[in-house]
Design a protein that fits this description.
This protein has 240 residues and is mainly α. It is built from 13 helices and no strands. The two termini are 25 Å apart.
């Protein structure tokens, strides 16, 4: 599993994909934080403006990472070689997931100038900021697991990207007032379920410095479920 993770992580940096992802993420994170986030006009030294945009930044950038995880293997025909190696299939699934998750961790770590900026401008609660970064990793992991399962369904990377963006958007917006108000008025029994499945809503607790067991269990279960689906899809494709 570790060998596959290292191979996949190295593969990201062997192509321009990694650098394009990181540059776009850092530029957009900085631009949104300091412009739309009203960083300076708020008069508060914290990273709430940055964290408020993270689930929506990952909405597009994480599927760009996952679209090649399995779709490229299937298109090139190397998936058969990978799955016939003396490793368990779940180790391949976890290895690819961990590589993409580590890459997201590297991208987040490179936003450290934002952390330095708020400490230079004021005296923020660094514990809250650290909790926010933990939440960012949880959101990235959730989107990655979902995107990886979708990538295993198709050989076309563009199709994998589009479907992953749509699927991640559903889980990000599930707890928005527009969706919950509509469901409360028409399908009240689904309103609470929608809120419970909202990745963005679960992330809000981390941005307030609250790392609750309930939210950790939610993200762990979400990631585990979609990795399980990923494994099932590969079993089905292998049977075909």
């Amino acid at each position: 599993m570790i060998t596959i993770a290292r191979r996949e992580l190295a593969a990201y940096f062997a192509t321009p994909v990694a650098y394009v992802f990181i540059v776009i993420f850092l530029v957009m994170a900085g631009a949104l934080t300091f412009t739309l986030g009203n960083f300076f006009t708020r008069g508060q030294a914290d990273l709430n403006p940055f964290f408020s945009f993270v689930p929506w930044l990952f909405l597009f950038l994480v599927p760009a990472l996952t679209m090649r995880l399995w779709a490229e293997e299937r298109r090139l025909g190397t998936i058969e070689l990978l799955l016939t190696l003396p490793i368990a299939q779940w180790e391949a699934v976890l290895g690819k997931f961990l590589a993409a998750w580590a890459f997201c961790g590297i991208a987040l770590a490179l936003t450290f100038p934002l952390w330095l900026t708020v400490n230079y401008l004021g005296e923020p609660d660094n514990g809250v900021i650290l909790a926010g970064y933990v939440g960012c990793m949880m959101v990235a992991g959730a989107y990655l697991a979902l995107g990886a399962a979708i990538s295993a369904l198709t050989k076309n990377q563009v199709v994998a990207f589009v479907i992953a963006v749509a699927a991640c958007f559903i889980f990000a917006a599930a707890g928005s007032p527009v969706v919950t108000s509509f469901l409360s008025a028409n399908l009240p029994q689904l309103a609470e379920i929608s809120r419970a499945l909202s990745v963005a809503d679960r992330f809000q607790g981390f941005t307030r410095g609250v790392v609750s067991a309930r939210d950790i269990i939610f993200f762990a279960s979400f990631i585990g479920f979609w990795l399980f689906v990923n494994n099932l899809v590969l079993d089905h494709r292998k049977a075909d």
